[in-house]
């Protein structure tokens, strides 16, 4: 459910199915229905009933529903307790509430070689 004072540059409502679309916006996109396609947004919200599948890129993202295939978030990826992300995931920062799930390959783009520590484990 969305609040009436929230503004989105792109919105797929509950009960709406959008297939094969390519969307690119600088603002906020919210998916409460079902979308299969390519989306690039400044901020992405997938609502609790939302299902998003395809090649997805965002600056930041809040996932309450389901995301599948490829998700690339340059800054904060926030997976809420009801969220499920499946596929290939790249993120800058990750926040995942208890109950939130990620299934697949996960990589950070926030690699900082100065702070990386190498640990070696050997069997004796």
Using brief descriptors, characterize the structure shown.
124 residues, 8-stranded parallel sheet
Approximate helicity band: under 10%
Rg for CA atoms: 16 Å
Q: What is the terminal-to-terminal distance?
A: 57 Å
Overall average pLDDT = 89
**Individual helix count:** 0
Q: Can you tell me about this structure?
A:
With 124 residues, the chain is mainly β. It has no helices and eight strands. The protein has one domain. It has strands at residues 10-12, 17-24, 28-31, 34-46, 51-63, 66-79, 84-96, 101-108. Strands 1, 2, 3, 4, 5, 6, 7 and 8 form an eight-stranded parallel β-sheet that branches. It is globular.
Provide a short characterization of the protein structure:
The protein is mostly beta strands. It contains no helices and eight strands.
Secondary structure layout:
Layout: E1 10-12, E2 17-24, E3 28-31, E4 34-46, E5 51-63, E6 66-79, E7 84-96, E8 101-108
Parallel strand pairs: 1-3, 2-4, 3-4, 4-5, 5-6, 6-7, 7-8
């Amino acid at each position: 459910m969305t609040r009436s004072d929230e503004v989105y540059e792109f919105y797929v409502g509950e009960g709406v199915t959008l297939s094969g679309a390519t969307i690119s916006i600088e603002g906020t996109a919210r998916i409460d229905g079902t979308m299969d396609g390519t989306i690039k947004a400044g901020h992405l919200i997938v609502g609790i009933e939302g299902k998003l599948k395809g090649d997805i890129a965002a600056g930041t993202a809040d996932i309450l529903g389901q995301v599948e295939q490829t998700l690339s978030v340059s800054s904060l990826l926030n997976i809420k307790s009801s969220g499920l992300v499946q596929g290939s995931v790249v993120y800058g920062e990750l926040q995942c509430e208890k109950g939130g799930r990620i299934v697949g390959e996960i990589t950070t783009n926030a690699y900082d070689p100065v702070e990386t520590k190498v640990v070696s484990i050997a069997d004796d």
